[in-house]
């Protein structure tokens, strides 16, 4: 079953006191790049969702925090897949394990009592609205509204309190906290709704495995792991290995002018394949991957993740990338975004932050979100409407770049470059 995030809104996280609304649903024909959408048929209607969202803004505006909220939701769910054992009649009774490892009590806005996250999920059959309120002591309230065909609606509410010791999953080494459900309420007939509850819980929990993060740190450490996964998948196919080698060399030499290509050698040890890989320099010397620059690592890592997603034909995956243009040449960023928007990734959604206004032209207009220094988050059509109401000049790509450049380069009111220069003066 295809599950798509329709929208996410949150409030109470760090500097975001007021509600932020992120909408994935779009009008396919109204905006540019109308092939860069994911299609879902529901109730005999075609629904469309952007397969990429870009967040641009100055430093400390909160762009990374927006991606982190998605991560909090994913990690929160990742440890708590609801169990429907033989002894559990009602899946909402009993206990759940939840992971709050990336959320600290001080992350909750000082003027709010809790972090609130509401995610709308849609499938061909069910529309789910999942609301979470997480308090500083990590007690959490959960409300789930479900709408299915034939106008049937179900609602249930839970309050989970920490009544157990923390535990460690010794497979993943993640720290989980066990919570007990203190109250639950199911609207309408409980027996009739039980199957819907199970299906809905599976839809919600499936999101945990569909959101992945790509960062400078993870790509530096994990791109070799992705490469090995690709090679092991194809270890019987020398032609496929040669193609992966050529791909690796092409990406590396597009970044580092000293690199001429890549070399992959398969070695059999006790009938098990292992792989050694290195890079060929233009002077015909060889260089180990550890000798590459951090910027080259990052670019290879992100493209390798993209290549892996294509090879495994990943479905309904959400990829989070912070500062996509950090240490990249703008042309490489544009190449990446054009790949992202292609039909090859018609079932993958990319969310990324960036600073370079020149790559904004590669983003669908309603998929471009502007994050201001006062934590206001609006998409480009809303901003255009604001301009029009204030008698803005004729809108164009040049106007867009100029405006976004001003947004990115804006700083606090007390920012004075002269004061910084003075520290380096006589």
From TrEMBL:
ATPase AAA-type core domain segment(s): 55-359
Protein name: ATPase AAA-type core domain-containing protein
Organism domain of life: Bacteria
GO molecular function annotations of the record: ATP binding; ATP hydrolysis activity
Pfam families with a match to the protein in the record: AAA_21 (PF13304)
GO biological process, one term: DNA synthesis involved in DNA repair
InterPro entries reported in the protein's UniProt record: ATPase_AAA_core, P-loop_NTPase
């Amino acid at each position: 079953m295809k599950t798509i995030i329709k929208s996410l809104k949150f409030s109470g996280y760090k500097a975001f006191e007021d509600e932020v609304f992120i909408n994935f649903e779009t009008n396919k024909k109204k905006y540019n790049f109308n092939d860069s959408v994911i299609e879902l048929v529901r109730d005999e209607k075609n629904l469309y969702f952007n397969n990429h969202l870009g967040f641009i803004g100055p430093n400390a505006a909160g762009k990374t925090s927006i991606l982190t909220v998605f991560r909090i939701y994913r990690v929160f769910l990742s440890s708590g897949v609801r169990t429907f054992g033989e002894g559990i009649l009602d899946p909402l009774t009993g206990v759940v394990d939840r992971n709050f490892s990336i959320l600290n009590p001080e992350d909750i806005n000082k003027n709010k009592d809790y972090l609130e996250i509401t995610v709308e999920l849609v499938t061909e059959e069910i529309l789910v609205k999942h609301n979470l309120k997480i308090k500083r002591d990590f007690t959490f309230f959960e409300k789930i509204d479900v709408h299915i065909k034939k106008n049937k609606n179900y609602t249930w509410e839970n309050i989970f309190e920490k009544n157990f010791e923390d535990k460690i999953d010794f497979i993943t080494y993640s720290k989980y906290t066990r919570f007990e459900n203190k109250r639950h309420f199911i609207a309408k007939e409980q027996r009739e709704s039980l199957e819907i509850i199970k299906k809905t819980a599976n839809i919600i929990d499936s999101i945990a495995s569909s959101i992945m993060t790509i960062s400078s740190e993870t790509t530096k450490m994990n791109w070799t792991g992705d490469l090995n996964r690709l090679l092991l998948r194809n270890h019987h196919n020398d032609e496929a290995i040669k193609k992966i080698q050529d791909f690796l060399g092409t990406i590396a030499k597009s970044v580092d002018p000293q690199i001429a290509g890549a070399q992959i050698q398969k070695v059999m040890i006790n009938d098990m394949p292992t792989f050694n890989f290195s890079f060929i320099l233009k002077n015909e010397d060889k260089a180990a991957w550890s000798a590459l620059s951090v910027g080259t690592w990052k670019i290879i890592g992100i493209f390798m993740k993209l290549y892996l997603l294509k090879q495994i034909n990943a479905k309904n995956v959400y990829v989070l990338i912070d500062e996509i243009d950090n240490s990249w040449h703008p042309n490489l960023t544009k190449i990446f975004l054009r790949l992202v928007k292609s039909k090859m990734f018609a079932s993958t959604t990319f969310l990324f932050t960036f600073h370079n206004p020149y790559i904004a032209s590669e983003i669908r207009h309603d998929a471009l979100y502007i994050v201001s220094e006062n934590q206001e988050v609006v998409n480009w059509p809303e901003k255009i409407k604001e301009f029009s109401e204030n008698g803005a000049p004729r809108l164009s790509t040049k106007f867009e770049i100029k405006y976004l450049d001003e947004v990115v380069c804006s700083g606090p009111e007390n920012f004075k470059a002269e004061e910084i220069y003075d520290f380096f003066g006589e």
